[in-house]
Amino acid sequence: MMQKRLEELKERQQKALLGGGRDRIDAQHKKKKLTARERLELLLDPGSFEELDMLVTHRTSDFGMADQVYFGDGVVTGYGKISGRLVYVFSQDFTVFGGSLSETHAEKICKIMDLALRNGAPVIGLNDSGGARIQEGVRSLGGYADIFYRNARASGVIPQISAIMGPCAGGAVYSPAMTDFILMVEQSSYMFVTGPNVVKTVTNEEVSSEDLGGASVHSSKSGVTHFTASDDVDCIKKLRTLLSYLPQNCEEKAPALPYSQDGSEMLHGISDLIPESANQPYDIKEVIRAVVDPGSFFEIHEQYAENIVIGFSRLAGKVTGIVANQPMVLAGCLDVSSSKKAARFVRFCDCFNIPLLVFEDVPGFLPGTDQEWNAIITNGAKLLYAFSEASVPRITVITRKAYGGAYDVMNSKHIGADFNFAWPSAEIAVMGAKGASEIIFKKEIESSADPSRTMSEKEAEYAEKFANPYIAASRGFIDEVIHPDETRRKLIRAFATLENKVDNLPRRKHGNIPL
Fold this sequence. Notes:
Structural class: alpha/beta
Shape: elongated
């Protein structure tokens, strides 16, 4: 009797492992996509995956569904380890009803999310789904809402990561949108609320799925996705790398790597990266890579709002969040997109105890009707709010320009930064010498016999007085003006003093960030 039952169990398990069947698995491979289980094998440490709810089936009998029953119901769920650390995972199976979400499919995902929240471990979703299972109607929609609710409850408590490895449309897009990071695969994944057919019907626009919501669009135009990958394998590799910078939950710190002083604390020639002319651009990423641990900078949102650079790095083996103005793009000005991009990242780092390091070279906010009409005021305030609210260790290094309100916004001393350093090349003022001189010395310039010469002289006079870090240093707004070669050593020591930082915030339910 027992042998017969064991054979029955084995038969059911084998059916579950086949998903929608060999033909559909082959079709998935022809699209250069891995199956749900193959993706989990790559993602998790070998032999660590423990599957839950393998034998779950849907409960629908309408529209001939009673004759179409597959074990697992289109999603593989369970837990395992990545680099030895516990994670909870779900991987949607496109071979079963196109990965569409049913009531039971949603229940499996919710169970995993509940376990992840109770046990303080990251939850990772590998999305490949045609959307709600139409045959189930409102029950499927209710399943989505159950997931959304858990996304919100888990936000800021455990890391949530979404990999879009196929279609993700309609209501399905909102769960990834509420997670911390989204990865998309080029040419095989897309996200949109309404598809090309609906768009054509409503607006008469003809657009492909790729042009409407592909990885390229969302990584460069909308900013919906943080990373793009060339294929499934590359996507999973990046996901594993990302996770290596994150703590398990909001009560822990990110994993540190062993570090011993080896004489690399002092830099050599980094000041050569700053051009003689204040109007000449340079690549802030070169500064970042020179200062942080070699090979540790992991950029996020690389193709979106490139006038600001964000990402994770390690400094003396410890994870640090980087926010830096990029003079190579829009002269490093803050605009709507860069403010939102940086604000979101700052808040994530603050949620998960990741110290923040800011490299500042900002001439101000980008002017123009487009910016004002798209609410640069509200969006710029998001970054200001995020820094002001953050209680993690925060340090700013001003490499060159720090002008106007943007000086305040970029983690200034006035909004709670712990240490502010400046290079001798720093210029801290309300605005640049030329613009300031045109206002301050307007009458003198206009009445001068040689307005051009007078303008040049007044510009030089203003620059001599304000285009330096020493007035701010004399007021204590800058803690120290440092030689650029000392930057790494100063930062390592300063962050070490902040390891036990305690910042008691006012008692409240939560603030009201200008969304």
